[in-house]
Design a protein that fits this description.
mainly alpha, 23 helices, 0% strand, disordered N terminus
């Protein structure tokens, strides 16, 4: 079947304008309820189970989940689904077990608002916040850029307009509601966006089955096209066992190093709320990931000849539904990107204004001036993200993976800080430096990459970072005992 379908911009614009208008209204409403830095960055730690669970999974799932991953699987077959499904099951459970309970307690006890608050306090070093802030600018701007590229893909498929139009439009709306409502606006919109994402996954899956003529016909077609679509490791040997194992660990374990997800624990009301949120969020992630990725496999049998693999899900919806219904559910993909951008944008703004400016550059700055500055910084970062999306330096999946891996190095100082009293600031900083250098070397240098034996570059990078943490910490002075007690004795209260 040919992929070319005449765009229907009228219904698409109508639905999208209504949807974006609702998001903008929520941002305005949230701004009226946001009166402090605590409100702006973490809802003052008052988020309930439903808001927390949906906000966590909708921030974790992105354009990568709804466009990039199905697009990759479109060229691989069933083997491509083997990574994200187990990753979706554990990507909220493991962080909650290993650090969530501690973060909820520490956040309420000491008023932590950001990941840098925790790291700076634990290691008794303001340098930690500055380093984290710089790293976030370097890696999280590309992550936001990957989401905004997806908006361009969607606008192009549904209207025929250049992709930059979607990039700029989505960027402006997200900037507006994050600038006004902060984390309250982000998490309130996440509830709507997360619900819409689940609906989009279900509908896209059903439509892809109908278009393919049912499971039996789809599988027969795939077998006739290339038997590797039905087997492991997939077409072109995409999924060797080392890559498979390392990617499950990547998406399930290393979410703990992502500041925009880390911060969500500070928003939760209490431990009971956290555990309820885990079950709700995990269920949403499992359903969404399974069905949207399976739709990518089904699409192989019914749609060929598309411009980019990232277009497969929009094409399924465009070809299988009438224009208005297709536009409603394509808004679910827009929601996936917006829900990730808003969480990251607020967190990155916090890194610049609170962790770098207030704590290092201008220690006399009061919370009111920082809050005003946060709105300006939100706009400036948003503009940079829009520019990144316009120039599109890579595919959505590639950019997402690069950015996620870079921030994942922070798993080392976070977990060592929580479980090893002897870990020091010098050790933490050294582990980050060594980890990032190793990550880039194992990714970019062929001779070094071969030493990973097929595992993702983050594996050896994390091992080297951990070894560096241990050796350096044993050779340097640990934080004051008062600081250690603050972080370890609080759980005995």
């Amino acid at each position: 079947m040919g992929a070319a379908v005449q765009p229907s911009p009228g219904p698409f614009y109508t639905v999208l304008i209504i949807y974006l208008g609702v998001m903008a209204f929520i941002g305005w409403y949230a701004s009226r309820k946001t009166s402090s830095l605590g409100d702006f960055f973490v809802l003052s730690g008052k988020a309930g189970a439903i808001v927390s669970g949906i906000a966590y999974f909708s921030t974790q799932f992105s354009m990568g989940t709804f466009l990039g991953t199905p697009g990759t699987i479109y060229g691989v077959g069933y083997a491509g689904m083997a990574i994200s499904i187990p990753g979706a099951v554990f990507c909220m459970i493991l962080p909650a077990i290993l650090m969530g309970r501690k973060l909820v307690t520490l956040g309420h006890e000491y008023g932590f608002l950001t990941m840098a608050d925790y790291l700076s306090d634990r290691y008794h070093s303001k340098k930690m916040g500055g380093i984290l802030g710089v790293m976030m600018l370097f890696f999280l701007i590309p992550m936001m850029g990957a989401q905004i590229i997806g908006a361009g893909v969607i606008v192009h498929v549904f209207t025929g307009l250049p992709e930059w139009v979607g990039v700029v439009g989505m960027g402006i709306v997200v900037i507006l509601y994050c600038m006004t409502g902060g984390m309250k606006g982000a998490m309130m919109t996440d509830v709507i966006q997360g619900s819409l994402m689940i609906a989009t996954a279900v509908v896209t899956f059903v439509v892809s089955i109908v278009m393919g003529g049912g499971f039996e016909n789809i599988n027969n077609t795939l077998q006739g096209m290339n038997e590797a679509y039905l087997t492991f490791p997939g077409a072109n040997g995409y999924m060797p066992w080392a890559y498979y194992v390392s990617n499950i660990v990547l998406w399930a374990f290393f979410t703990m190093g992502q500041p925009h997800l880390f911060t969500k624990f500070f928003t939760m009301k209490d431990h009971k709320t956290m555990f309820k949120a885990i079950f709700l969020g995990t269920a949403g992630m499992l359903v969404s990931a399974t069905l949207i990725e399976w739709a990518g496999v089904n699409g192989i049998a019914s749609i060929q000849g598309i411009e980019k693999a990232d277009q497969i899900v929009p094409m399924i919806l465009q070809r299988g539904l009438n224009p208005f219904l297709a536009s409603i559910f394509i808004a679910g993909i827009v929601a996936a990107g917006m829900s990730t951008i808003d969480g990251i944008l607020v967190t990155t703004t916090g890194a610049v204004t609170r962790d770098i400016y207030q704590k290092i550059i201008n220690k006399k700055a009061d919370d009111n001036s920082v809050m005003k500055m946060s709105k300006v910084v939100t706009v400036l970062i948003g503009i940079i993200v829009i520019c990144f999306g316009v120039f599109q330096p890579g595919s959505i999946f590639e950019i997402n993976l690069f950015a996620f891996s870079g921030m994942a190095i922070f798993v080392v100082p976070v977990l060592f800080g929580m479980y090893w009293k002897k870990s020091t600031a010098t050790g933490a900083i050294a582990s980050i430096v060594v980890g990032v250098i190793a990550l880039l070397a194992f990714t970019l240098v062929p001779e070094v990459k071969a030493l990973a034996f097929g595992f993702h570059a983050l594996f050896p990078a994390t091992i080297l970072g951990s070894v560096t943490m241990i050796i350096t910490s044993l050779l340097t002075q640990k934080p004051p005992q008062e600081t250690i007690d603050r972080h370890f004795l609080v759980f005995n209260k």
